[in-house]
């Protein structure tokens, strides 16, 4: 589908542009997050325009109205939110993801950014078995990953700098258990003001987490994203088996006064295995 257009040694960034203007995608409202991403990528690949620069390749969709949508309203009249999915520790990848987001949207400020850092993507049913009994409302984050909290703090310090420089408003974090959230909160200079939890993985909001967020004025939100948004078997299906997803970003642009979604899209960085 796309592999014949890519150079073997090139680093590839795929930018879907505004997927709201793709009629086939509009008909599939309520898709699972990975399915929505896959369809967005397929649509982009079907109309692919490949731009080469300094050993890297940017794949975009030819019929893309993202910049037109961004210019329809002043920056003060829109709210931009994004979520970065990172499944391995890399300060370079996080910085690249943020900078590529600014570049793609042609803005210098994001209203909010949520980091989903899962150094070990693992499926969970949101319960913990103890002495043969299932304990509901348990969140497990980064199970089996060495120094996950330490690495998260280093990643967070990058986002803190963007916040200090007035380039990002609110910072958020996804899927942390209460102890990890405490470590991050107490060790940061710019505290997370948003905490996301996946109710598919944790069907009951843990009371301790709820209490901690309330006490520290952290907005507790739910989401339905998997730990790994673009897993290996999906890349295989897309005929990109030679690549892995270094990072994935999903962004949304809302018109403030009406709460209407004006634009939505994905940016994916692919690197050869």
From TrEMBL:
Organism listed in the record: Aedes albopictus (Asian tiger mosquito)
Protein name as it appears in the record: GCS light chain
Subunit structure: Heterodimer of a catalytic heavy chain and a regulatory light chain.
One Pfam family named in its UniProt record: Aldo_ket_red
Annotated pathway: Sulfur metabolism; glutathione biosynthesis; glutathione from L-cysteine and L-glutamate: step 1/2
Family named by the database record: Belongs to the aldo/keto reductase family. Glutamate--cysteine ligase light chain subfamily.
PANTHER family: GLUTAMATE CYSTEINE LIGASE REGULATORY SUBUNIT (PTHR13295), GLUTAMATE--CYSTEINE LIGASE REGULATORY SUBUNIT (PTHR13295:SF4)
Keyword field: Glutathione biosynthesis
């Amino acid at each position: 589908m796309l592999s014949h257009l890519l150079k073997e040694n090139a680093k590839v960034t795929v930018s879907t542009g505004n997927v709201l203007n793709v009629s086939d995608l509009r008909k599939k409202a309520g898709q699972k997050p990975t399915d929505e991403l896959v369809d967005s990528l397929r649509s982009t690949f079907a109309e692919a325009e490949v731009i080469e620069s300094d050993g890297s390749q940017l794949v975009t969709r030819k019929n893309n109205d993202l910049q037109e949508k961004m210019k329809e309203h002043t920056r003060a009249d829109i709210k931009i939110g994004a979520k970065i999915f990172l499944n391995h520790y890399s300060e370079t990848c996080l910085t690249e993801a943020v900078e590529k987001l600014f570049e793609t949207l042609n803005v210098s400020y994001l209203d909010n950014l949520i980091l989903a850092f899962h150094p070990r993507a693992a499926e969970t049913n949101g319960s913990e078995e103890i002495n043969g009994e299932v304990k509901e409302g348990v969140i497990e984050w980064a199970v089996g990953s060495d120094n996950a909290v330490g690495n998260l703090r280093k990643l967070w310090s990058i986002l803190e700098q963007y916040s200090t420089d007035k380039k990002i408003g609110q910072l958020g974090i996804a899927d942390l258990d209460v102890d990890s959230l405490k470590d991050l909160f107490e060790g940061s200079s710019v505290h997370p003001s948003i905490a996301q939890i996946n109710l598919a993985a944790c069907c009951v909001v843990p009371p301790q987490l709820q209490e901690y967020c309330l006490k520290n004025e952290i907005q507790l939100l739910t989401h339905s994203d998997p730990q790994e948004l673009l897993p290996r078997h999906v890349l295989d299906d897309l005929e990109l088996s030679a690549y892995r997803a270094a990072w994935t970003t999903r962004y949304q642009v809302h018109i403030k006064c009406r709460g209407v979604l004006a634009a939505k899209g994905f940016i994916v960085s692919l690197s050869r295995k």
